[in-house]
Amino acid sequence: MKPKIVLSYLMLIVLLNAGCSAKNIEQSETLACFASIAISPDGRYVAAGRNIFNIIYLYDAKTLEIVKYFRGRQKDTWGKMYAGTLSFSPDGKYLAAGGIDNVVVVWHVETGKEKLYLKDLKKPECIAFSPDGNTLAVAGPDSFIHLVNMQTGKVDGVLRGHVGGALCAEFSPTEKFLITGGRDNYLRLWNLESKKQIAQYKGHTAPVERITFSPKGDKMVSASKSEIKYWEVHTQTASSEIYGQKSIQANKDALAFFVNLLGVVNLAHSGLAFTPVSSRRLELMEPLSADFSSDGQYLVVTVPSTKLFSNYEMRIKNLNTDDVVKVDGQFFSLAVSPDGKYAATAGVGVKWWDLQTGKEISRKNP
Prior knowledge:
four-stranded antiparallel sheet; mainly beta; globular
């Protein structure tokens, strides 16, 4: 293959990778990706939301063979409606999706029939089931968190506090609390009985878009596009920063250098002009992700990568030994299986991983 063709091909690969992990994944109209993922409580199923076609695939977790589809009522217009957030009910009977038809929809998993179609909750940013399965929390796109009664489909309460928009929500596994994150860079802790804010957590420098509790509920990890922080829940302090601004900028600087180097070399060989890329303007990242294993042994996070064929790196940390396994790939969302042995990731395909070894077990391409 001629040098000009090789360089042009490499440039195309870089641009395609950047496009599929762009800040607004719905703009990747020609790239079939998965934007969200969830694992059923019994570990039987993996649900994954496509970034086009307004559809969710339900896979058999062992084989990644498709079991069924969940579709919206409306016809998708190339990525304008998709499930950006998914959640199984604790008993595994229901699957809730935020973004299908640009609203919240809940289906019976076994029958595929709709249970709830919440047309008034438009453009949700995040959904989460309470531990007893009676409440579905819906965050955004306004500054409120809506608490939906699963039996009636009615909003039983609204939590107000975030400025600019609520982006994520997660119930404590052991207490009657809800933690939320928003565009104001704060995490807010709510008492669900009084529906009052009882604490706030300050430390992020960008909107908080992902939250997960440890199995005991005493710790949590929050993530934005800029950092991942590890918190002590009751002391309201960030005990450590798993990934931060300096690391983010270093990755962006390295990626910009690589892209510009390819551009210069391609210019010398082909004469094709290019516009240099500034690392300060790069926005290649979806929100960074994090999840604990059910036994608390592993913490799995995704961070940016500067390698040519991947925009992300999944890090699997053994919290007992501090050993870390690193895997490169496209990871827009992740979930750890209920038995704590495996992880599922959504990106350019759905993949199933062994947490102990970091090895890919199986995959399903779009």
